[in-house]
């Protein structure tokens, strides 16, 4: 893609900004997403050690994971409202400072309860990463560019998860496991001044230009909360994220434990090999954005783009069904990697669907509501996983994560069918 020049006309309320500057901003969103997921992965990578030091069963570890997800669910709506009302520059900076403080405090925990409380605190801030990021992408990129932009910044989740495994294992073996929490916290603190000096909210002149250019095709007025809740498309994205969210969370929070306890990898082997499935997942986010952009260039309607990308990737997620049934660790790694690739491919287009169906001024609230749905399932699923693993095995969990992406995709197109059909014959190239 060629960066848009400052003088190029934009649509859908996209604010004029220097072509290079907006890519720097996107780079910062990518970087904070990497940091965000290093923070999240610290506990999952250290899970074998933490369970021993803090005397946690799988069920109790599931409660720690659920505490973080409960924090995410609790913070979604306040963070979304904060981004809409105060702006992303201040809102995202505040969110990063808030969760970085919680990350650092985890180094002081001595019990499972203390760890769960600090994870809850961290979750209330980390949900702001996506509320803010989605608004920035919608503001700086045209509709036909957004899925790629979302894919780039969302791929930071897999990059962070990939880097986290060898980095955290190295820190644990060299300095002790508590040092890993302190490093993660410091990364967020280093990011904050870069964001503050590089990102700017649109000036009055830029807002006036955007308003003038939209004079012949003005956006609809801001939707009241009660009307937003009554919108079927909101429930579509909420249901979609409810089913898709816990899938990648399972890979983030449980795969290191699975490889350690079931596949009998040592912590050193985890450091050397545990990042491989996450690397395959990295490519999924980029591929999901690229595929959507390529289909758009071929003249496909937005409806067709989402159908092709989301159904194909959700079907590919079924590969995880075979993981517990193969004796080969190599094939198991490959299947996990394929499933993570497919789920990130799907996620890029799931988040892209929000920008399809809602205005930029509503995206903070919409992302917040969908995050509540994801947080609710993310709260339930770790608890269920802990019970299933302790009482049965990982097999029923892999069965669930194999089918949930397809259920989420079906729900999206059933509930948002009418809104998408309105754009079925219109190519994004004409937007």
UniProtKB/TrEMBL annotation:
It is a multi-pass membrane protein. InterPro entries: MFS (IPR011701), MFS_dom (IPR020846), MFS_Na/Anion_cotransporter (IPR050382), MFS_trans_sf (IPR036259). Keywords: Membrane, Transmembrane, Transmembrane helix. It comes from the Bacteria. Residues 25-420 form the Major facilitator superfamily (MFS) profile domain. GO terms for cellular component: membrane. The chain crosses the membrane at residues 21-38, 86-105, 148-171, 177-198, 234-255, 275-295, 366-388, 394-416. Gene3D superfamilies: MFS general substrate transporter like domains. It holds the Pfam family MFS_1. This is Hexuronate transporter. The lineage of its organism: Bacteria, Pseudomonadati, Acidobacteriota, Terriglobia, Terriglobales. The gene is exuT.
